[in-house]
What we know:
With 205 residues, this protein is an alpha+beta fold. It folds into two domains: 2-67, CATH 2.40.50.140; 83-204, no CATH class. 50% of the residues lie in helices and 18% in strands.
Amino acid sequence: MRLTGKIINWHADKAFGFITPNGGGDKIFIHKNALTNRNRSPKINDIVSFSVVKDNQGRYCADQATFAGEKVRNKHKKQVTPPIAKLSIYLPVLFFVVLTVSYFLHYLPQKIVFIYLGLSIITFFAYAFDKSKAQRGQWRTQESTLHLLALLGGWPGAAIAQQLLRHKSKKTEFRVVFWFTVVVNTAVLGWLMSAQRELLLSLLT
C-alpha cells in the first residue's frame, strides 16, 4: 500500500529528511536513495507518494518515493549491474591476490599484507557505521575521514562496502575522490615495491 505525505524537513548535506503522512501518524524517515527520481532535490512542503518498509533495525522508513505528478517505477524491473560496480568487487579481491603472491615471492613483507587487511576491515565497518547513522538520522561520519582511511590503505574494504552495503555508491563527487585515493595509494605502493624495495624491507622486517 502506498501513502501520500509532505516533506516537513530535508537535510541536503546528509541526504535525508522526514515526511508527514496526509492521514496523520508519526513522521516517516526518508533517504535520498528511496527516491525514484534522484536528479531532483527534495524541498520542504514537496508532496510525495511512497511505500513504507522496515530498515535493518526494524524501524519504518519510506521506499520507492515519487514526487507528485511522477509515475511509480517498477521496483522489480531487472537492473543491469554497471561495470564500475563489478570493478569495485573484483579489484579489491585481485589486489589482495597480488599482495599475497608478492609476499610469497619476497617482494613485500608480511606486515604490508596485514596492514592492508586491517585497514580494509576498519574501513568496511566505518562505512557500515556511517550507513547505520544515516538510517537513524544521526550525525554522520565526515567524508574526508572515509577518504583518509581509503588513502592509507583501506580502499579495498571501502570498495566492497560501497557495493555490499549500497552506501556511497551513487554520489559522483564522492566516487571520483575515492578512486583518486585508490590510484594514489597503489601508485605509492608500486613505487615502494620497485625503487625503494630494500628500504621498505628493512623498515618492516
